[in-house]
Fold each of these.
Amino acid sequence: MKVIIAILSLCCIPSFGRCQPSPDTLNYMIEVASFKVGTMMATRLHLGNGKTKYTLISNVKVNLLLYHLKLFYKVESNYMNNKLITAFVNTKSNKGNFYTQVIEVNGRYFIKAHQYSHHLETIETDPILYSVAKAFFERPRQGKVFGEYLGDYLLVDKVSEDVYIFKRKDQVDEYTYSHDIVKSIVKKNRFIDFKVRLIK
């Protein structure tokens, strides 16, 4: 009996006696030319009462000849009844520290994106129902996806039953799905391509 109580105490909230929900977690390896250069983790957490939280954490370090990149970023997107209500991105890199924030107030999104070589402050009035963080757990069913990192939309093209292209200006990302889960991503870069591959 004591063992059972000890196990329950690890997962339950003492003040309410309820177990905390466990997040759905996807772990990825990031590769360049078959060499591991980083990791990515995507989580989805159902909080109840129509609330869902999506999180992306990426950590990359590349040193190839004249190309050097050190990047850590964390995306937190909060949905209420399948509509985005807030999104926050914090970035640390060898180019500096940056951020993006998206906050919904009375049906309007106030967007501030201050990333390296990208600055945007705008207001979006259309509901945001689908974003990149959510896309890891749900394949596209519309022609655009909101990118939390830049605070802007990417267009979506369906290449085949399981392959979709997310694109914005010079940015082209190829997403491959297995059912509704992202199996791999190829991020095409001007200098090198990154491959994000599901490991569990």
Amino acid sequence: MSDQQDAGSAWDALAGVRLPRGYRVEITAGKITMTPRGQGHREVALDAAAQVEQQLAGHGTVLTGEVVDFPSPRYGYAPDLAVIAPGARQGARGRYRSDDLRAVLEVVPRSQQDGDFVRKQRYLAECGVPLYVVVDPEAAACTVHSHPEPPGAYREAERVPFGNDVFLPLAERTLVLSTDGFAPDPG
């Protein structure tokens, strides 16, 4: 995969473009989408990032909302939270690559889990991202997708209601994410 990732990045299409703050920008199947993010979304993402960073204790890197290069010029994501493998280095474009990802966590309400979301989940599995965690404030639950396998599916999915701990088994250790501070959103 890393050879393909040097061929071009979906983010090259937005080089030099000033993107508005407070929006998630993603590229799925060549389509650029911008979604506004509210305060609740931001708080959940920051809470999760602080917990993960503390538990990693220098054995990996936590990114929040930063662009990651994927092996296709038609897909570009900037996850709410990404756990990068220990020792991974940024590439020539100053970005980590998808094969550096150990986990991705995103705050995605059920109302936004549409066709683009399904393609994104499938693509992350195709890229071999070991864990994909979807935090859904409308459902007041997290879903941990694990064990990616070809042709782009996660073999396991565990739903964990808010108020319970979420276990994130990484190669080096298992992180425990407390959801006690995650605020439900009735939609």
